[in-house]
Design brief:
Layout lengths: L12 H9 L50 H25 L3 E6 L2 E6 H32 L1
Antiparallel strand pairs: 1-2
Helix pairs in contact: 2-3
């Protein structure tokens, strides 16, 4: 802050909005100009009576739409059900593909059912994707700090 008065950058947007709603000047340098003696002035009128603020309504106004009932628990439940369905489909895939195949990786050789081999390759691909994504997140966090 410089001196007694602050600049716009030093106040949150909510404070600036309140200042503008009340008709006050947010900066000391921009006070309203006093009336000049050579210009005619309007007759003095008493200030309007202030009405007390109305309390917020207890119920939101109805617009014909149903209120949202979503919550973290609801999202967790949907995720759990979706994960369970995916696991059931995956189990059916593995059980239907039990024919054994030979898998070679560098100097290792494995004999696995086709379903298990596909499952392991998908898991390895997801781990590589998570590793690359995690590295990118770390990179963005470092850039945001500087």
């Amino acid at each position: 802050m410089t001196g007694r008065w602050a600049t716009y950058r030093e106040f949150p947007a909510a404070v600036i909005a309140i200042v503008h709603d009340r008709g006050m000047s947010p900066n000391a340098e921009h006070e309203p100009e006093p009336s000049r003696p050579d210009q005619p002035t309007a007759p003095a009128t008493p200030p309007p009576a202030r009405t007390p603020p109305t309390p917020p309504a207890t119920e939101p106004p109805t617009t014909g739409e149903k209120p949202s009932i979503s919550s973290r628990t609801g999202y967790a439940w949907v995720g759990l059900v979706a994960g369970t369905l995916i696991m059931i489909v995956l189990l059916i895939f593995i059980l239907q593909n039990l024919e054994t195949i030979q898998v070679s990786l560098f100097f290792w050789e494995f004999h696995l059912p086709i379903g298990v081999a596909v499952l392991l390759s998908v898991i390895c691909g997801a781990l590589v994707m998570a590793l690359v994504g995690g590295m990118r997140i770390i990179q963005l966090r470092r850039a945001a700090k500087h």
